[in-house]
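Q: Mind making up any chain with structure tokens?
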Amino acid sequence: FPKHWQMNKILYILVFFMTNSMFSQIEIDWFKLRDVYYKSEYREDVDGYFQTPYFGEEVEKLDGKIVKITGYMLTLAPDEGVFVLSQNPYADCFFCGYGGPESAIELTLRPGHDSFFMDELVTVIGKLKLKREDVSSGVYLMYDADAVKE
């Protein structure tokens, strides 16, 4: 084979792997994240009962994966980097009575992100972590995240 064919073959392989990794995030929705139930369990380390989350099989598979989801940006303390992505606008979020802890994702955004308005609709891509121990701030955390305004 001519030498340029070998170079083209290498180039095609590189492009395939680059585009495959760029689009390797898993698109999810809020319905999928509802697959969690809570059980009141005693914890010796704090001498008290806590609601321990147990995630469904499909949600377990998302732990540590790069996911993409659209929701409402809750700018709780933007100067301190405290952001939450919610299934519902602020007035309807879980601490106001409409949803549960599974209807929000605590966000750690990458440096240099845009500023956001409360309840701005955004799509977020980042690594999802299932929180099992300290559920006081929710059961989902997304870190290394980028948010794109809709």
User: Anything to note?
Assistant: The two ends are 49 Å apart (CA to CA). Residues 14-22 have pLDDT under 50 and may be disordered.
